[in-house]
Amino acid sequence: MIFFKLNKSHFLFFILNAFLLYIFFVAFKYNLWDLFYILLVEFIFLLIFSIFKYKKYKNYLEKIKKYNDSLISFEDFYQSPSDLYVYDYLKRIYRQVAETKRENEVFKKNFKDYINLWTHEIKTPIFALKLLNENNFESKKEIDKLENLVDQVLTYARLEKSDFDYKFNFLNLKDLVLQVIKAKKNLFIEKNLSLEINIPESLEVLSDFRFLKFVLEQIILNSIKYTNLGGIKINFKENFIEIKDTGIGIKKQDLDRITDFGYRGENNPLASSTGLGLYLVKNILDNLGHKFKILSNEDGTNFIIYFETYKNVR
Description:
The chain is of the alpha+beta class. It has helices at residues 2-6, 8-27, 32-66, 74-77, 83-132, 137-159, 173-183, 185-191, 209-225, 252-255, 277-288; strands at residues 168-172, 194-198, 203-208, 231-237, 240-245, 292-297, 300-306, 310-312. It folds into two domains: 1-77; 165-313, Histidine kinase-like ATPase, C-terminal domain (Heat Shock Protein 90), CATH 3.30.565.10.
């Protein structure tokens, strides 16, 4: 298509020329076979010229594409006098984009550093509030929500750091689950939810303690939040852990998007939901190399995490 657009005027000229020559040959009663040979030679030359022009134009575009990554020399870029203006224009654009990109990177880094500092600083007054409201269940519940939101922000900031190092160790999975359950026991009591844990005492999985704990916290909190009757079962089968609740479930049309940033699902009964928890869970598990699956229907939701490496310590 580009080939014909580039040479449109040449082909139109060829057609007009052929038409005029035809009229001339007919008017003077010349042999039309002579006209055919003349037009054939013209067409061959036109085709060769058009192909050469197309290749030249294609090479020109390739050089412009390379300009996206680095400044090329004018000698490499130059094909005609008008290219000087194109080169100067692209050079200005490139420098503007490079400067804007540098400024954005600096701002992004400063913002992340500020978020990290802010989340660490705010944890101290949150801890103090928890101690002061140890016996006030409602206040403590709201403080726990605030602490979870702060943890989400801090984790999000850490995920955005490309140089962040994960610390992989063999972790006792049942101990880790029990730590999370112990911290959230009041929520189970408040909603009168049952809890069943079937994980071998000696089972260890290879993962990062801090991030896997955060993942389990977010999934269990999610299950508690959307479960009003019944309870939660946590089982280890073959090479995966499943956290299964009897909650309201996730609508079929929401399943593919439920781990998207900020997505809360249609007709979400909880307006306070941030839509950040499962997004962080999915991204953390991807970074840790653990496959993640969500199954859901009207009977509840099943969160499944697969572990590539695990062992039973006897």
